[in-house]
Amino acid sequence: MMRENDWESLLEEVSSFCIKHDIDILNMDDEYKFLGRSRQKSQGITNLYHFRYELFNNIIDMQLTELDDRFTEISTELLLCVACLNPSDSFLLSTKKSLFILLFFFFIIVNSL
Q1: Residues 47 and 26: beta-carbon distance below 8 Å
Q2: Which of 65, 76, 77, 108 falls 20 to 30 Å from 45 in CA-CA distance?
Q3: How many C-alpha atoms does 57 have within 13 Å on its Cβ side?
Q4: Same structural domain for residues 94 and 58?
């Protein structure tokens, strides 16, 4: 989900930053130039492919792995459910399932007091 939805917004944000600070922007359709590697190995790889699929997706995977290592499955579920209460984007992440799970956690906590 994040891989699909957030790439475009990240690219727009980076482009805006570069324009604001007068930094050259790569053409994402140009061939990616590997540093320190033979030109033969870089043929056919575009900047878009390199930055989106080789970097962006790998960084998301590393972050998800770190989150999985730090939080239990229940804690992660609770965080996702609480995120659905964010009023930005008009509660876009809200689902009946998320609200039900959040209510269930609340019920367990109240009854344990």
Answers
A1: yes
A2: 65
A3: 9
A4: no
Q: How many domains does the chain have?
A: 2
Instruction: Return the SS3 of 31.
Output: strand
CA–CA distance from 59 to each of 30, 64, 65 (Å)? 22, 9, 10
26 CA to centre of own chain: 22
Q: What is the tens place of the pLDDT at every residue in 68-85?
A: 888 888 787 777 777 777
**3 and 55 fall within a common domain:** yes
- pTM, two decimal places: 0.55
- Show the domain range for 61: 1-70
**Amino acid (one-letter) located at 3:** R
Could you read off the pLDDT of 22-69 as tens digits, one per residue?
A: 999 989 999 888 776 555 555 688 999 898 888 888 888 898 898 888
